Amino acid sequence: MTVRDRGALAAMAAGAAALTVATLVACGSRPAEDVGADEAAALAGATPTRTASAAATGDSAGVPVNAGALPAGGATIPPVRLRIPAIGVTATVDPVGVNQRTDEFEVPPSVDRVGWYRYGPGLEADGGSVVIAGHVDAADQGEGAFFRLRELDRGDTVTATGDDGRERRWRVVAREEYAKTKIPLDRYFARDGSPRLTLITCGGPFDAKTRHYRDNIVVTAVPA
After folding, report:
1. Among 64, 77, 136, 186, who pairs with 124 as Cys (CB 3.0-4.6 Å)?
2. Helix (H, G, I), strand (E, B) or coil at 185
3. Cβ(45)–Cβ(193) below 8 Å
4. Mean pLDDT across the stretch 96-117?
5. Which segment of the chain is annotated as a signal peptide (predicted)?
6. Dihedral over alpha carbons 160, 163, 165, 171 (to 10 degrees)
7. Which domains does the chain have, with CATH numbers?
8. What is the mean pLDDT of residues 189-198?
């Protein structure tokens, strides 16, 4: 995976618009204290991490990426359904890549669906980060599948069903919030390190002028 591929993180959940400014300010003003950050970092092993910069992101809307290359070797099992009982999520998972027009990570336009980054590991992988992202909300659709992602805590369970019909359970070990210009991108888009599931959406204050959230919420889970 290229450096530009890993730059997709900040773009994954960007672009979610407001129900109303008041609603978004209220949502963004409920800070979720980070938990499990050390454990999330340890799962990535000793791989150096790269932090997004203002120069790389251009603005809070997202990070340009390229189409990348699919992981080599073996059949990839994509997730097709995601269940998170603690926050009432049952969502279809679409394989996504890069919007060729904008060069940004392409989150499904329907906010009740989420996207799996198909240039990273699938559910069969023995290592690396399986990345799934979704919108927090949208002006014309309301709350997204990951609207309550910030409420997840250590010990909560996530079930991802593959296109092979098999359910795989994961246990949440970390929840972190980053400014989109400060995310250690390599950590969350790695194809190495311990097997883990990475869930991402927008969070933090909402900028009514740019119509983007400032931050990303990142939840890390390990096989249960």
Report:
1. 77
2. helix
3. yes
4. 84
5. 1-26
6. -10
7. 3-57+78-223 (2.40.260.10)
8. 93
